[in-house]
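Shipment paperwork, digital attachment
Item: protein structure file
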Amino acid sequence: MSTKRAPRTYTDIIRHSVTSLLLTIGLIIVLTVSITLTVDQLFRAQDQAEKLSTSLQTTQVSNFKDWLAVNQGSGLNSHNTFVLIKQSDGTTTSLLPHTSQLASASTVSVPFTHLVYIKKSGLYFSETLRTGTRTYYLYIGMHVLVGNLHVLIAVLIIAIGLSLLIGLLYVRRLAKSLSAPTLALANAAQQAAANPENTQAELPQPEEPVEVAQLARDFNQLLAAQNGRLERERQFISDASHELRTPIATIRGNLKLIERRGEQHPEVIPESLGFIDQESLRMQHLIENLLHLSRADRADVSLQPLNLRELAQAVVNHYQPLVSQPVTFDSPDTSVMALADTDMLHQILTALLDNAHKYSPEDQPINVTIAQTKDAVTLTVADHGAGIPAADREHIFERFYRVDASRSTKIEGSGLGLSIVSRLVQLNEGHIAVTDNNPHGARFTVTLQPAPPKKN
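Attachment content:
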């Protein structure tokens, strides 16, 4: 059963990588230098063997005295060079005391080379020369090569060991400096996660490494968005509580009034019941709007092509008998196709007409206009009321926001209508904007995507 490897730290990863790199480099150096030195020594031994073979062919060495003359002229090291002569009759002559022992000892040949390892004697370069009735067996010792390789390998092992020691100390320091910003970022993120209900401070943002700095910036943007949502939710709860508290307090107050004075003053009952009915209806509208807003936040919309001109005309025709203001409609004569959800767009237009109706004088018209360009389709609802101050325009789509607090009790509404409209427009991948209407009033313009042309 295989076990899953535990996650590694910066230090572990860098240490493992640097150790592997240094060992690989050291092994390559050892092999390269060893092969180079061996090949060089083999060429030298080959050259010496050729010179010695030439001398043997010329002088026809048959005894130790002749061998001394040849050896002296060749410049070979007599301690490492041995010759064994084999006659045609099978007899052998050894030119040095231990040559016969070399010839009779067990040997191991190195493939593809003239190297022979002789037991208890070492490594030799072996060459066979046949001349006349004699066969010369040359053995040139490679003791210098072996000794040099031993020294070289020992030096390289020490050098690699020191490099590893220094490298690991450096890696530890490097990993600590690299991981410090990440650990600080992680600790700050853990503290932020431990208090999700509180507004989170920005995470520390190092200048380098660049990747960690970018990660910190992204985290801070995420925290800023989260803080904004958290603040809006707090404000929403506070505003909803306030809006619900008022009608509940009114209802309870009138119930107490009926309870205390209903028997002695029955005339207060109808008036109190009227207030209770009015406030309960207001609370019902508020709760319905909250439900609409909650559904809009969770809605999953599939946009389909629809004829905006036809839908808007139907809404205007249905809405006109319900209000005192005249509602005008202006649109191109041909179909205006947009990508949207039919029910949501119906709700958007109705909410904008309700808003215009509430804030417009009874004798002033409400204008509904549809326009189309190559890149967009627009739906505009304009009124001729008091208008919206520039300072309030960026807030009117916030939940429970009312432009004029002094008029909030005179004009019915919960302050959620435009918030719902803004959310529905977003779900339809559109944009809503408010501008001044000439000579006075406000214009709400919803911009939608045009539907792609039908394929023939």
